[in-house]
Amino acid sequence: MAPESASTSDKVPVLLLKTKSTPTDAYEDIFSTPRSGFDHFEPIFVPVLQHKFEDEGMQQFEKLLRSRRISRNLDSSYGGLIFTSQRAVEAFAKLVDEGKGDADWPHLQDVPIYSVGPATTRALKAIPQTPPLQIFGEHTGNGDALAQFMLDHYGEWYKDRSTKPPLLFLVGEQRRDIIPKTLMDDALPDSRRISVTEIVTYGTGVIESFSSDFADVLRKTSDRPSRWVVVFSPTGCDSMLKGLGMLDSSTGKVNTETAETVPETRISTIGPTTRNYLMRTFDYKPDVCAEKPSPEGVWQGIVDFGNSKPA
Q1: 3-class secondary-structure state, position 133
Q2: Residue 59 contacts by C-beta under 8 Å, 6 or more apart in sequence?
Q3: R_g of the chain computed on alpha carbons
Q4: DSSP string, 106-121
Q5: Predicted model pTM
Q6: pLDDT for the residue 195
Q7: For residue 176, how many other CB atoms are within 10 A of its CB?
Q8: Given this model, what pLDDT does residue 3 score?
Q9: 68-98 b/e with 16+ CB inside 10 Å = b?
């Protein structure tokens, strides 16, 4: 007989300081699904950043799709697409949904679509297509590795052409330039160099209501024995620590005498950048820093921390 799931009141809230991704969010999946005998987490999203679609970029991208300028044809403008952000995938999904009813829409069945890792790939695969989109790069995990992979894979895809068709890269206002720099490196022979065009499809800003939203979630979970806060970037760390009552107003640092919160609240970071920011700015070392910046890495870090505590 299968074990019964824990009731909501028995579960440990995991406050994810991020916007919930659509159409699926891997953090919600991993913390809400029984896994390796664990069935006691309750994921709760508290957005820190707000994302908005950029009209100019969206219109430019839609025009390319509708005019079929992204294809394997010799006269096409682009021979493939690059996604390194779930927000960019959401922009793409919005256009795909709006174009339903057009045969073969979005006309990308014969080109490679490159995705930086599992989460972005899952989001792309969730966009219904017949036949499905041809997605590559899931195993890479970061922009540098994806760029190296594309040099070989895209080169093979268009091996019959001495000059490779350009790639279209859907990006946000803030992004790293490692992929364009690697693919367009002047040191590469002409036969391997790949031109990249970036279209900004979304922008990012801080949500003004974060402090009050976070305080509201803390109140609603105050009756639980313990809870976790997962931090994904330095943005919002100050408000998070203030909300938890951990900051000394006179020094701006975490007061070790008041850092023990009730209920017990533990903090995990997505990786070393945010951990180092907390240590450098607030003299605070989080309880967990994920070894891998992924849903699985965060989940494993939290589980391992729980297993290491004395009974």
Answers
A1: coil
A2: none
A3: 22
A4: T--TTSEEEESSHHHH
A5: 0.64
A6: 97
A7: 12
A8: 39
A9: eebbeeeebebbbbbbbbbbbbbbbbebbee
Reading the block at residue 2, the tokens are 């299968």
Q: Which 3 state secondary structure label does DSSP give 123? A: helix
Query: Is the separation of the CB atoms in 196 and 179 below 8 Å?
Result: yes
List, as one string, the DSSP characters of 235-270.
TTHHHHHHHTT-B-TTTSSB-TTT---SSEEEEEES
3-state secondary structure string across 273-286: HHHHHHHHHHCCCC
Complete DSSP assignment for 284-305: ---SEE-SSSSHHHHHHHHHHH
pLDDT at 207: 87
Higher pLDDT, 175 or 220: 220
pLDDT in tens, 23-51: 889 999 999 988 666 668 999 999 988 87
Ramachandran quadrant class, 283 (left: phi over 0; alpha: psi -120 to 50; beta: rest): left
Q: Which two tokens stand for residue 23?
A: 């159409």
- Tell me the one-letter amino acid at 245: G
Q: Is 194 helix (H, G, I), strand (E, B) or coil?
A: coil
C-beta atoms surrounding 104 within 10 Å? 11
- Measured between alpha carbons, how far is 31 from 23 in angstroms, rounded to an integer? 17
Omega before 34 cis (within 30°)?
A: no
Q: What is the pLDDT of residue 5?
A: 47
- What pLDDT sits at residue 258? 62
DSSP-H helix ranges across the chain: 26-32, 55-66, 86-98, 118-125, 143-157, 178-183, 210-220, 237-243, 272-282, 295-308
| Lowest pLDDT segment from 50-59, 174-183, 252-261, 287-296 | 252-261
For residue 277 the two structure tokens come to: 């920011």
Q: What is the DSSP letter of 42?
A: E
Q: List the Cα angle 54/47/58 in 5-degree steps.
A: 15
